[in-house]
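Escalated from tier 1: S-adenosylmethionine holo job.
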Amino acid sequence: MSQRLSFYIHIPYCAKRCGYCDFNTYTPSELKSGDLDSLSDPYIDSALKEIEMAAKEVGSAIVPTIFFGGGTPSLLPAAQLARIIDEIRRRFTLEKDIEITIEVNPDSVSKEFLDEIKSAGATRVSMGMQSAVISVLKVLDRTHNPESVGDAVAMARTAGFKHVSVDLIYGSPGETIDDWRRSLEYALALDIDHISAYALIVEKGTKLAAQISRGELTMPPDDQSADKYLLADQLFEAAGFSWYELSNWSKPGGQCRHNIAYWDGSYWWGVGAGAHSYLSGKRWWNVKHPSSYQEKISHGQSPELSHEILTPENLSDEFIMLQIRRREGILHNRLNPSQIHRAEEFLSSGFLDIESWQDMRLVLSRSGRLIADKIVRELVL
Ligand SMILES: C[S@@+](CC[C@H](N)C(=O)[O-])C[C@H]1O[C@@H](n2cnc3c(N)ncnc32)[C@H](O)[C@@H]1O
Ligand code: SF4
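Tier 2 regenerated the structure:
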């Protein structure tokens, strides 16, 4: 039987960098080019060559999911992204019901783009909404307004996308519980089947981190973050979205299969500048800058910057770290007696789901989800 290999395609361009974001992405001005159309052609050419390298290394494989992430994939002409899908189709076997996700920004997506990328085979749109409150979007330095999210979701549905997701961020400086409730209610009024909700992380070196250290912005207290998570979970569940991972909720059939592939240890190949890959116990990552990436590829070299080989201990720790975040949890037979013993203390404090424990599975309770990191630290000593 052929092995399975998912693809992540990194598109390292954004129109403007949001103040909180430290993803591997570049604006036209940082690249000293005002024109993304002309940048995209050579970048995609290099990505096609990397897909050819993947085919040489892996041989035949069935591709269950492809994810175009960024950066902002919707800034590129859809025809460029279509070239990638065609190349993967040419070199591998696409699974019959393949999931192909495109990340889009609400204000850089058009009806034409969505129609074209849908015709090229995309099945799912994931949109960065973050908040429905103008003052919060301003603090996050986003360029869109709340209405553009509703318009873009409607466009995606009209284009025929069955699966549409929005990303939200909670815990921004100045965001009140009522602001967050407004964002949740706005998201739940959209015609979507998936929501990701992330606590804001203040990444070192970002504009947001500088604003906070200068005292211009203040982060809300930590316990507010827990209240916001619980409010989100309560409203999502009431609206028919079930949690399937700590930060992800979906309607039935709406789970993101690509993300599940990351979490369950499946193999994936990350194509593009700075992309990470995982295959047979080896994890590697590419050179970060699009110019160095293209340079390496143009010399027929692998774009790999560095790699690590995961030991059986690393793999079993990672399994616990990722799997504990999922609703299906961890079967007891994947834990050693000492881990079972330590987990029992969390069970008696109400942080684990009792019924699942009786079914020989470790699954976090709602309150346990709030301290998932602490539980992992206790289990993976
Ligand atoms: C890399 S972005 C790509 C999507 C698209 N460019 C956008 O921003 O709409 C993917 C998601 O990561 C999340 N994200 C990025 N930086 C974050 C941070 N510092 N804290 C929490 N979430 C973050 C945001 O929710 C964002 O929608
Ligand atoms: S648009 Fe998305 S990827 Fe680009 S800077 Fe903003 S959050 Fe980061």
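The longest helix spans residues 36-58.
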